[in-house]
Amino acid sequence: MAFRDPDAPGHYPSCPFRSATGLLCPGCGTLRALRDLTQGDVAAALAHNALFVAALPLALFSWLRAVRGRPPVLTSVWAGVTAVAVLLLWGVLRNCV
């Protein structure tokens, strides 16, 4: 159960990128999406940040591999370049729709 509602004003700082530009950054809505997932509301989580919801299983799988002593998945340079490209594309697309 969450102690603070991220939708309530005053509990968390606002996004500096959004404050400066009025646009959503790739991470905007991640805290709200995580809270929605912990409450079992997948639809609301997808509405807040669909990329975070889609990437979470990959991040958890990678973390579990690291805990077991195996190398995490997608550790190549190309994986990093792809991740940055996806974040930039997500940042553009979510502000166009």
Offer a few descriptive terms.
mainly alpha, 4 helices, transmembrane helix, DUF2752 domain-containing protein, DUF2752, transmembrane, membrane
Tell me about this structure.
By secondary structure, the chain is mainly alpha-helical. Helices cover 63% and strands 0% of the residues. It contains four helices and no strands. It has helices at residues 16-21, 30-38, 42-67, 77-96. Helix 2 (30-38) crosses helix 3. The longest helix has 26 residues, at 42-67. It is globular, with a radius of gyration of 15 Å. Keywords: Membrane, Transmembrane, Transmembrane helix. This is DUF2752 domain-containing protein. Pfam families: DUF2752. It comes from Streptomyces chrestomyceticus. InterPro entries: DUF2752.
Short description:
With 97 residues, this protein is mainly α. It has 4 helices and no strands. 63% of the residues lie in helices and 0% in strands.
